[in-house]
Specification:
about 260 residues; alpha/beta; eight-stranded mixed β-sheet
Length: about 260
């Protein structure tokens, strides 16, 4: 599947996955973050809102006139940056407190350092890394495992996939076979569960969970390559089994590589 670039401006790159699905990417930042806009007949879903270095609504306004709901894969700074530009925000119940009271496990100085380093594109004048603060606010509603979000002729099933964070979710679009995995599964750089707020065993359980979802045709992680082959689910399942068998599922065992999938504990 080739993703056609339809907008490439100073900060954001928008790729069209199909007629009703777009990736909004921030390639000028070292994390190569992707948010995803899914159009239904009645409303659209925006999966995450990126870094907050620039305003993502500037992109979504060009792509749809539908009302937009924000579905948060997890409450880390690089996924909630533009949440404040939207009225309807949903998050898993296990991370409601993080969204309201602040992200646990990372101090603001470290977040600012990570946000402002290794930037290769011009940032807008409105971005000041010395005063950057992750979004905080009360969500419109809470998501739970098994919930189905209806967009009108298109639905998304919610899977609670903790490990990288307590309330991490993956979202599956059965109409197209698209699986949006957030920070649970992507290529190139390590998927991590080494911070105190992570859980290595839960991460492997979550990889098992998504590997059992039937009819997955394409995987969309929140970093690096846009669109991975579903064979990555078999790799993830094998990785989880091997790491358990070798008794490596604990903090400090390092980076483990399986056919391009890298997991860091």
């Amino acid at each position: 599947m080739n993703n056609e670039i339809v907008i490439d401006d100073a900060w954001f790159t928008v790729s069209q996955i199909d007629a009703e699905t777009f990736a909004i990417s921030e390639f000028g930042h070292w994390e190569k973050v992707h948010s995803f806009l899914l159009l239904g007949q009645e409303r659209a879903a925006l999966i995450d809102t990126g870094l907050g270095i620039d305003q993502i609504k500037r992109m979504t306004d060009q792509l749809t006139d539908l009302p937009i709901i924000v579905l948060t894969t997890h409450v880390h700074a690089d996924h909630i940056g533009s949440h404040g530009q939207f009225e309807e925000i949903y998050v898993h119940e296990a991370e409601e407190d993080w969204l309201v009271s602040g992200i646990k496990g990372l101090g603001i100085e470290q977040i600012r350092k990570d946000m402002s380093r290794d930037i290769t594109r011009p940032v807008p004048e409105t971005f000041d890394p010395t005063s950057y603060k992750p979004y905080q606010g009360k969500p419109t509603g809470l998501l739970r495992d098994g919930d189905v979000v209806e967009l009108g002729g298109r639905s998304l099933k919610i899977y609670h996939t903790p490990g990288h964070s307590p309330g991490h979710i993956a979202l599956f679009d059965p109409s197209r076979g698209y699986l949006f995995t957030g920070d649970l599964l992507y290529d190139e750089t390590p998927v991590y569960a080494f911070y105190p707020t992570t859980d290595p065993e839960a991460l492997l359980n979550s990889l098992d969970t998504i590997s059992r979802i039937p009819e997955v045709k394409r995987i969309f992680g929140s970093h690096n390559t846009i669109g991975l082959d579903p064979s990555w689910l078999k790799v993830a399942q094998h990785a989880a089994q091997d790491l358990r068998e070798k008794d490596l599922v604990r903090y400090g065992t390092g980076i483990h590589t399986y056919e391009g999938l890298r997991i860091q504990f």
